[in-house]
Specification:
- The complex is a heterotrimer of chains A (about 325), B (about 130) and C (about 800).
- In chain A, about 45% of the residues lie in helices and about 10% in strands.
- Chain A has 14 helices and eight strands.
- In chain A, the strands form two sheets. In chain A, strands 2-1-3-4 form a four-stranded parallel beta sheet. In chain A, strands 6-5-7-8 form a four-stranded parallel beta sheet, with helices on both faces.
- In chain A, helix 3 packs across helix 4.
- Chain B has about 130 residues and is mainly alpha-helical.
- Chain B has two domains: about 90 residues, Fumarate Reductase Iron-sulfur Protein, Chain B, domain 2; about 30 residues, no CATH class.
- Chain B is globular and about 50 Å long.
- Chain C has 21 helices and 38 strands.
- Chain C has a five-stranded parallel beta sheet with strand order 10-7-6-18-29, sandwiched between helices. Chain C has a five-stranded parallel beta sheet with strand order 20-27-21-22-23. In chain C, strands 2-1-3-4 form a four-stranded parallel beta sheet, with helices on both faces.
């Protein structure tokens, strides 16, 4: 089926009908549950661009955070095991010479990439980890971990622009990067202080990009577990500034950022009653909308702050 | 009350431990304050990130009693901006780990209300447990 | 019969605390031509030197070995000692048992002592074959090239011009004056920069011995001390400076508007313009790139209105060629490109400016023509682009604390209602009057906050800047709004410096600025003879230090030129006439074209010969040789280095060139970095001296590994040495391969003098390789020594 025909389909992605370039893909736990819409929209828009993201077989949770002490190896085992799976896919002929691994969740991307870099810089540690995982094949170091945005950049934003059916004209979007896509430098997909990758994507989709000076400020991350108030304050600052700059909505790339920026708006309004809700969307949802895909793929009914009134206002509803 | 400290060689042990665990040369921090000014969580801290480094430099174990490293969100803003090239996120992690490895958890999962657990995505719970429990 | 005196120095404990100097002296005492072997506390002191002079006379010594520090350190001292005793200074050899023995091996007295004995043995073997040579003297003229017309170049030119030397001052801008011309006032006295600079610039113009070439750039420099051939490209100004009356009528009619460089682009100028109110030469200049067009003439209005007829569109670029004897490099600096520090928003936020912008703003405010509103709340941010690994510059730029103290005071005093803050990490007020000036600023009410701002955010409506910093002294986070933020940008090397450095093969320090010959004792010399540094090209500094350095550089240049001649060590090639068969293979191989065939015998032109030794390897008859580093001497040193080697030992030979390799070995020792004891360093003028034959002979005599350490190509005084060495190494490796000896036993590495760790790693790696390969078996060694000449030269006359 051609990408154009694909867009009419409402059923979920059917792996048996893979057609485009096959690239291994790591979902991570949250994308299968609370952030399912992120996965659904991503897989479909990838299809439209001729990419089949093939879910990594027997993947395990990456651990969500990189262990930062010098002596801890055990917490690197889980992500390395996922990288071994990519090499296994190749050796077993499930894919041909494809060592890229695409992640959607910023945290998963960060952990997988840094685990790879850690063992590449410390061959002795790689040996220990390989020896520990004696039931698995040894990790050879071949995998190249990519965030989905990097893949899009490699495909080329002009090509993405050509695939756009309905430009998001008039929609003022503020890109929000969070931390783990950009810091530290070894894991960064763009300049930590002046990233442009989301802006370029949004421009290709026809949206108006609103710069937010707080676009790289942390959302509070795991502090949301025990200090909701702190997270609420950060969210208030980030979203208020976006609003002051003129944004209609904010786009993000991480389920934890999404939770903190969207779900926690409830706590923001408890402290700041004057705060008006601001829709927060995954960038892949915006891509799905721009590619003219069906409402079930865009998944706007699943966003905590319903973006549909805004989209209707802009004449962009599905 | 202004605390008085006596600098003895005992204090060096703590500095050495944190330096090894973090893999950072803590003594090269010149207290410029860039990390504190970059930190999005500093408003909720009792000591600033640069103050945390200072206490470690002086070998003062009481830094383990502070809230700062628990308020840290591991966002790496300090790491990316430190003019001396130090990775402060690793020093904060080292201080957390010193306590966590003594089986002193920072949060008690059981005390989080059920509806909150329902609401939180796994990504939050897993990372929270990784950072706050041993 | 040779009569050698050997002296082993304690060096005040530096050597004797590690090396058993008595044992070393005793070890050599037994050799047939060693008449005496003594130790002494301080050989370089007057008593030490007198001892040598006395012994030379009393014991009729005809050659001397001094085992002490590096010959690059006290070599000249001891050479002078021998001269005082009536002996040729070239029958002296120094065994480097300090920088290359006691210091790097400081924890290992036994190994250090054994190595010292070996090094002294090598020196004795070499001195045995020294010749009674004399210094070579060459004439030198009185012509100097000064590159750069800022305050450093101006001062150097004036000193030299006043002393009666001929100066070519080349400046790329249309006027001399440099960055100082852009400043408002100078710290700590608050002199008006332009007012004190202007008379100096006028002096340059008036000085008959200074030939100014402005709007000019260096195209090429070739040659060496006493013979630098310079080509300068002089851009046309299209205005005859003798006719221009500076009336300014042309400016009024010129339609082309471009940013004004003097004003850091904050104001504009026309294509035809006066570079500065105090410009020297004082004449208008037509900027061809800004002009609407000259070929063909698109506008021409300036010429129409020019009454004196000074505008001349027929001017063309000129190539000016001349020869000089010495060169002073004074190419200055650039300020750090503040846009690189993205968190500060320079270039995005209109209310963030650099300190140089602020200098111009202050100048115009003082004249009653403010450029733009400054507001009441002004913040200075220190260390922008300095002391910051995130932008790749660890170094401190030295002057920013003081210029911020100055600018903040000027702003505060001109409007006391202003609220001015300086955000610093350290406040460096080290110079004369600096601390007092800082105190005055504090007293005036300038607020100094110790904290480095992390980010600046602009208010989208008011455009005011919110700054976030920690006050590390009170441990508070400061988040405040300012009308204007000034970035105290650091000093960085500029593009012109890079170009000149490549042309003159000058080395760079780790901070990117040009490297001085010795940080303490030769701060304005470079490692290239006859080339000196002055001003910020060597590193950040303020105006008094720049002027002092410029005068220092002039005096160093005068020192070389004043006698009308200069001395050089007689390290030149020579021919064993009896062996030369006139084949002429060497003639084309000399990079300096110093060899010719006369009556079927090779002849060396000593004035042209640079002493690199490249020619030697090409002679199939061993007829070519090098004074002070003869073939026999090289072999004798190699043999002496291997003579005490036990079968279980590994022994590697390190050939190190004068300019970098040997210097680097000294630096490594001075830094007390240790490396393998297995190595023996042999000094050469350039590793192109090391012939394939010598390398192969070394293996025959028991060497397990050889490494050639040479200056990297761009800063090598012998431009052709690197390719020459590569071909020698390739040939030697080839032959090793032919006889089944591992080619990995020979290494060639290029260095710069700051690569200390690299040097250590390479030496240790070679020892490890040699150890893991094991000793070379007898069979391959036998095959190697058989028909060696045939292997080297046989059947290939183009080798």
């Amino acid at each position: 089926m051609s990408p154009e025909q694909e867009k009419g389909k409402t059923d979920p992605v059917d792996d048996n009908q893979a057609k485009g370039t096959m690239i291994p893909y790591f979902p991570g736990c949250t994308l299968k549950t609370k952030a399912k819409i992120f996965e659904t929209s991503a897989l479909r828009v990838a299809r439209c661009l001729g990419i089949d993201l093939i879910e990594l077989p027997r993947w395990n949770c990456c651990g969500t955070v990189t262990s930062l002490t010098s002596d801890d190896l055990i917490h690197h085992v889980a992500p390395i095991r996922d990288l071994v799976r990519v090499e296994d896919m190749n050796t077993m002929g499930e894919i041909y010479q494809e060592y890229r691994l695409v992640a959607l969740c910023s945290m998963c991307f960060h952990v997988l990439k840094r685990a790879h870099l850690r063992v590449m810089q410390n061959p002795g540690e790689l040996e220990k980890i390989n020896n520990l995982m004696y039931l698995e094949n040894d990790y050879q170091g071949k995998v190249s971990v990519l965030h989905f945005l990097e893949l899009l950049r490699d495909i080329g934003f002009p090509k993405i622009q050509k695939t756009v059916e309905r430009p998001l004209a008039g929609l003022k979007v503020s890109p929000y990067y969070g931390c783990l896509l950009l810091r530290p430098k070894e894991a960064a997909i763009d300049d930590p202080e002046d990233p442009v990758i989301l802006s370029h994507l949004l421009e290709a989709l026809g949206a108006e990009v609103i710069n937010n000076p707080f676009k790289t400020r942390c959302c509070g991350s795991y502090q949301t577990v025990c200090d909701k108030a702190a997270v609420a304050e950060l969210t208030f600052d980030i979203l208020s500034r976006a609003r002051t700059e003129g944004a209609d909505c904010v786009t993000t790339s991480c389920p934890l950022c999404m939770f903190n920026l969207a779900d926690r708006q409830k706590e923001v309004m408890e402290k700041h009653p004057e705060f008006a809700p601001m829709p927060v969307l995954y960038f892949t949802q915006l891509m799905a909308l721009a590619f003219g895909l069906d409402e079930s793929v865009c998944g706007f009914d699943q966003n905590v702050v319903d973006p549909r009134p805004l989209l209707r206002e802009k004449g962009l509803s599905t | 009350m202004i605390p008085k400290i006596v600098l003895t060689s005992d204090h060096v042990d703590f500095l050495k431990k944190v330096s090894e665990l973090s893999g950072q040369i803590v003594t090269k921090c010149d207290q410029c304050g860039t990390c504190s000014a970059s930190c999005p969580m500093v408003d909720g801290m009792d000591i600033t990130p640069s103050q945390m480094m200072r206490l470690v430099q002086l070998g003062r174990r009481e830094v383990l009693e502070s809230k700062a490293m628990w308020v840290c969100a591991s966002c790496f803003a300090c790491t990316v901006r430190c003019p001396r090239g130090s990775d402060l996120s690793k020093v904060a992690e080292a201080l957390r780990q010193i306590l966590l490895r003594q089986a002193i958890d920072h949060i008690d999962i059981k005390s989080i209300p059920e509806d909150e657990i329902e609401r939180l995505p796994q990504i939050a719970l897993v990372s929270g447990c990784r950072k706050f429990t041993g | 019969m040779k009569r050698t005196g050997v002296y082993v120095c304690h060096c005040g404990g530096n050597i004797s605390e590690v090396v058993d100097v008595k044992r070393v002296a005793e070890s050599v005492g037994g050799q047939p031509d060693v008449v005496l072997a003594k130790t002494h506390e301080h050989m370089c002191s007057e008593t030490g030197q007198n001892l040598v002079i006395h012994d030379i006379k009393e014991h009729r010594l005809d050659r001397v070995v001094i085992a002490a520090c590096s010959p690059q350190f006290q070599g000249p001292t001891f050479k002078a000692t021998l001269e005082k005793a009536g002996l040729s200074p070239y029958v002296l050899e120094m065994a480097n048992i300090r920088e290359q023995c006691a210091w790097p091996h400081f924890g290992f007295p036994e190994e250090a002592t054994k190595k010292a004995m070996s090094l002294v043995g090598m020196a004795v073997a070499k001195v045995r074959l020294d010749e009674f040579l004399k210094k070579m003297t060459f004439p030198i003229g009185r012509r100097v090239l000064v590159i750069g017309g800022g305050i450093a170049g101006i001062q150097a030119s004036l000193d030299l011009g006043d002393a009666g030397f001929n100066v070519y001052l080349v400046e790329k801008d249309p006027s001399i004056g440099g960055k100082m011309m852009q400043l408002s006032r100078t710290f700590p006295t608050e002199d008006c920069a332009a007012c004190i600079l202007s008379p100096k610039m006028a002096d340059v113009a008036a000085n008959r011995n200074i030939h100014m070439l402005t709007y000019s750039e260096i195209e090429n420099i070739e040659g060496y001390l006493g013979h630098y051939e310079v080509t300068v490209k002089k851009k046309p100004t299209y205005v005859d400076p003798d006719k221009c009356t500076c009336c300014g009528d042309c400016v009024g009619v010129c339609p082309a508007v471009v940013p004004n460089e003097l004003e850091e682009g904050l104001l504009s100028r026309k294509a035809i313009y006066l570079p500065s109110p105090i410009a020297v030469p004082h004449a208008y200049v037509l900027d061809a790139e800004a002009c609407l067009g000259l070929l063909p003439i698109a506008c021409g209005k300036c010429k129409e209105v020019c009454d004196p007829g000074a505008v001349d569109f027929s001017m063309r670029p000129e190539l000016v060629r001349f020869t000089v004897d010495t060169i002073i490099v004074a190419t200055g600096y650039d300020i750090f490109d503040a846009g690189q520090k993205k968190v500060y928003g320079f270039g995005k936020y209109e209310n963030v400016v650099t300190a140089l912008d602020m200098e111009r703003m202050v100048v115009h405010s003082a004249e009653g023509n403010p450029m733009r509103p400054m507001g009441k709340r002004i913040a200075f941010i220190q260390c922008v682009g300095s002391r910051d690994e995130q932008v790749g510059n660890e170094a401190c730029s030295r002057i920013c604390c003081m210029y911020a103290t100055k600018l903040s005071q000027l702003l505060k005093r001109s409007d006391p209602s202003r609220d001015i803050y300086v955000f610093y990490t350290d406040l460096r007020a080290y110079g004369k009057g600096f601390e007092e000036y800082y105190k005055r600023a504090q007293g005036d009410g300038v607020k100094f906050i110790r904290g480095r701002p992390a980010e600046l955010v602009e208010d989208p409506k008011t455009k005011k800047i919110t700054l976030r910093a920690e006050d590390t002294l009170s441990r508070n986070i400061i988040e405040s709004e300012f009308d204007l933020v000034v970035l105290s940008v650091g000093l960085r090397p500029n593009e012109g410096t890079d170009i000149i450095a490549k042309l003159l093969r000058l080395g760079k320090s780790p901070d990117g600025f040009l490297q001085e010959a010795h940080p303490k004792f030769r701060p304005v010399d470079t490692l290239t003879d006859g080339v000196f540094l002055a001003g910020t090209v060597q590193g950040p500094k303020d105006i008094p230090d720049t002027v002092a350095q410029a005068s220092a550089a002039s005096s160093r240049a005068i020192r070389l030129m004043n006698r009308g001649e200069y001395d050089v060590d007689p390290v030149t090639a020579f021919v064993h006439v009896e062996s030369c068969d006139g084949c002429g293979l060497c003639v084309d191989r000399c990079p300096s074209q110093a060899i010719s065939l006369v009556a079927n015998v090779a002849v060396i032109n000593e004035a042209l010969c640079k002493g690199c030794g490249s020619c030697i390897a090409h002679c199939p008859k061993d007829a070519l040789d090098l004074h002070c580093y003869t073939n026999d001497q090289m072999l004798a040193q190699v043999q002496a280095a291997l003579t005490d080697k036990k079968d279980t030992d590994v022994r590697t030979l390190i050939f190190a060139d004068d300019m970098t390799g040997y210097r680097l070995a000294d630096n490594v020792g001075t830094a007390k970095m240790s490396y393998s004891f297995d190595s023996r360093i042999i000094r050469v003028p350039s590793c192109s001296r090391v012939t394939p034959k010598l390398m192969l002979q070394a293996f025959v005599f028991g060497a397990d590994g050889i490494i050639l350490c040479e200056s990297e190509k761009n800063s090598n005084p012998y431009p052709h040495s690197v390719p020459t060495i590569m071909s020698h190494v390739s040939k030697a490796k080839d032959i090793l391969g032919q006889v089944d000896i591992e080619q990995d036993r020979i290494h060639f590495v290029q260095f710069v003098t700051v690569m200390l760790a690299g040097f250590v790693n390479n030496i240790n790696r070679l020892s490890e390789i040699a150890r893991s390969l094991g000793p070379i078996p007898a069979g391959p060694l036998r095959r190697l020594s058989q028909d060696m000449d045939k292997k080297l030269f046989g059947g290939d006359h183009d080798s």
